[in-house]
Amino acid sequence: MSSRVPQDSGQAAQRLWSVDEHLADVLAAIRPLEPIELQLLDAQGCVLVEDVTVPVALPPFDNSSMDGYAVRTADVQGASEEFPAVLTVIGDVAAGSGELPTVGPGQAARIMTGAPLPPGAEAVVPVEWTDGGSGGGAAAGMTPASAAPEGAGGEVRVHRAAEARAHVRARGSDVQAGDLALAAGTVLGPPQIALLAAIGRGTVRVRPRPRVVVLSTGSELVQPGESLAAGTIYDSNSFALAAAARDAGAISYRVGAVADDAETLRSTIEDQLIRADLLVTTGGVSVGAYDVVKEALSSVGSTDEGADGGRMDFRKLAMQPGKPQGFGTIGPDHTPLLALPGNPVSSYVSFELFVRPAIRALMGLADVSRPSVRAALKADKALGSPAGRRQFLRGTYDAESGTVSPVGGSGSHLIAALAHADSLMVVPEDVTSVEPGAELEVVLLG
Q: Can you tell me whether residue 17 is helix, strand or coil?
């Protein structure tokens, strides 16, 4: 059972935005990147902007799927180990062969995997069904042509019959000329790039992978590998978010932690604009005296276009963790900037909810969010949740049983729990308690 409370109709001086309102506001400002023509390997991870059709059939000719002998079926009919068919070997057909020998009655040609089926031949018998031209028992393989050129001649004994087209890959059996190879909107992974290469495409028109610059703020932050002084902690946020941006499909750039100085931060952001399609900051968006992101970017203006062509808005969201958020555009190109809170879990959850969809929208994808499922809570006791807040708790999802189990507590600093989670359990705004067995929405992170 779940306890529900009425939505709070009273608002503070600054209203609380819902998660859905904030996401809609972010996505409304995102425009997919302009398409460009890229070499195949440079296009990995990018999204096609046009349908790709097949110019030539694949494979472009009938070819052998085995190493063996190209034969006429009539010549091997009834062949057995006791009464083998004895055929004259007229030559080799290797992959890439141009001029092909014609296989006549009583003849065979040694043929390699991928080689074109020669004229007159109707099937391929694997070399293991023959004596390999040795005059002995079943062959285990072919003698290399360089070591035994005489293997391309003489006689071969075939111990089994073969039906027509046996071990032959038909022309166009993969795709036919004019077929749709890949549809616009396809994300190009290794198999898709292989297909493009196989049909002769050297370049392809795509939306490029977005360039995402990640900055963390805080004078207390020290880079991993350095020594910690009193009152300092290691900067994990910039590493987590740069990795998450890469996982979402972006090219990510991580900038070392910026101290709590508004002018330094403003200057750093301006320097990074040249290589950013999207900027992400973490920390400095709450109400503290050293929340420098708000200080540095508030001069852009929260309601009117600033002198630099940007606009920033800092707001509170009805969610936990991740209540303080900032969003806007900065610089002459109106580059989107998402300012996330500094607590590690708050930062990561905010990335998944808002930054990842923004990256996917820049790529031109229609489906921008993580998949979600419904699952039953598996826990020893009820989970509490603050009224009026959509809570995101770390969990592990078991697809086989259809259950989800909490990992760690609700604290926004619990990085270890986050590292062992594969999902986020979503507790709606009007639910204050979730009993074991109750069904929840589960966002899958893997």
A: strand
